[in-house]
Design goal:
Blueprint lengths: L9 E4 L3 E2 L4 E2 L14 E5 L8 E6 L4 E7 L2 E6 L4 E6 L4 E5 L4 E5 L6 E6 L8 E2 L2 H8 L1
Antiparallel strand pairs: 1-9, 2-3, 4-11, 5-10, 5-12, 6-9, 6-11, 7-8, 7-10
The structure holds thymidine-5'-diphosphate.
The site of thymidine-5'-diphosphate has 7 residues, from strand 4 and strand 5.
C-alpha cells in the first residue's frame, strides 16, 4: 500500500455499551477494523509538548484510539497532511501502511492505544522523512 493517501485513513466509530455504571467498547478482527490484530501497545506518561511517531510503516495496519485523554495525529502522504484530534475511547483512527505520522498535543493522562496488524519489526519502519518521500515516488 505504497500508494496510500491521507484519504485512505478513516475515523472509525466503535460500538459503545453503556449501562449507567460505565462503558465498554470491543474491537473485533474483521468487523470494526479491516485487519486482524496481532499486537496491542499503548503510549502513556507522555510529557506535555512531546511528539511521538515521526515515522511510516511499509506493511503495518493500525487502529489508534485515545483510551484516555486526548492527542492529535498528523498524517502525511508526502503531498497532503491531515490532522485528527482523538479524544473519545469509542473513536479510532484507522491507518493503513505507507503514511508518515506524528502524534502530538497529548493531554495530561493521555493514553494512546494502538491495535496493530503485525508483531513489532524494525524492518517495517521508515524513520527518515527523505527516505519516506523516496519510497512514495
Ligand atoms: P516507536 O514505534 O519508534 O515509538 P513512537 O512511534 O511512539 O515514537 O518505538 C519506540 C521504541 O519502542 C523503539 O525502540 C522500539 C520499541 N518498541 C518495541 O520494542 N515494541 C513495540 O511494539 C513498539 C511499538 C515499540
Amino acid at each position: 500500500m505504497k500508494d496510500s493517501s491521507v484519504y485512505s485513513c478513516s475515523i472509525v466509530e466503535l460500538p459503545r455499551i453503556s449501562d449507567g455504571q460505565g462503558s465498554i467498547t470491543a474491537v473485533n478482527n474483521g468487523i470494526e477494523i479491516p485487519f486482524d490484530t496481532r499486537r496491542v501497545y499503548y503510549l502513556y506518561d507522555v510529557p506535555s509538548g512531546s511528539e511521538r511517531g515521526g515515522h511510516a510503516h511499509k506493511a503495518l495496519h493500525q487502529l489508534i484510539v485515545a483510551a484516555a485523554g486526548s492527542f492529535v495525529i498528523t498524517v502525511d502522504d508526502g503531498k497532503i497532511k491531515r490532522s485528527f484530534h482523538l479524544s473519545r475511547p469509542n473513536m479510532g483512527l484507522y491507518l493503513p501502511p505507507g503514511l508518515w505520522r506524528s502524534l502530538h498535543d497529548f493531554s495530561g493522562g493521555g493514553i494512546c492505544m494502538v491495535l496493530a496488524s503485525e508483531a513489532y519489526s524494525e524492518e517495517d519502519y521508515i524513520r527518515e522523512y527523505v527516505d519516506f518521500l523516496e519510497y512514495k515516488k
